[in-house]
Structure to design on (117 residues):
């Protein structure tokens, strides 16, 4: 379970988009999703996986990982409720990106389409 990806690492991944310029998050094709869930739910999940031998990190380290989480609202990181069942999470992510792409397309048409009239 990865709880964080520091902003500096997100910037490295964004640089894969050759058209990306630092700070132009809405224009970047590389997007990020934050699986947002409460600490207690995370603790329960880590404990369960550890008991099944499916997790390497002790639950005691969880809070330090949460403390390191860096989310800057201006980055446009899409948040989804990770307490939902996996299918609902995936549907939420798909729906969120479809809506975002539709809005971006509409804004582009409004801003640039009027110039072509």
């Amino acid at each position: 379970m990865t709880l964080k990806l520091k902003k500096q690492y997100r910037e490295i991944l964004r640089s894969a988009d050759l058209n990306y310029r630092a700070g132009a998050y809405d224009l970047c094709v590389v997007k990020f999703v934050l699986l947002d869930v409460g600490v207690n739910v995370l603790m329960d999940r880590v404990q369960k996986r550890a008991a099944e031998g499916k997790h390497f990190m002790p639950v005691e380290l969880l809070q330090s990982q949460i403390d390191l989480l860096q989310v800057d609202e201006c980055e446009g990181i899409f948040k989804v409720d990770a307490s939902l069942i996996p299918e609902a999470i995936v549907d939420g992510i798909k729906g969120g990106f479809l809506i975002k792409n539709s809005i971006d397309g509409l804004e582009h048409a409004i801003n640039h389409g009027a110039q072509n009239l």
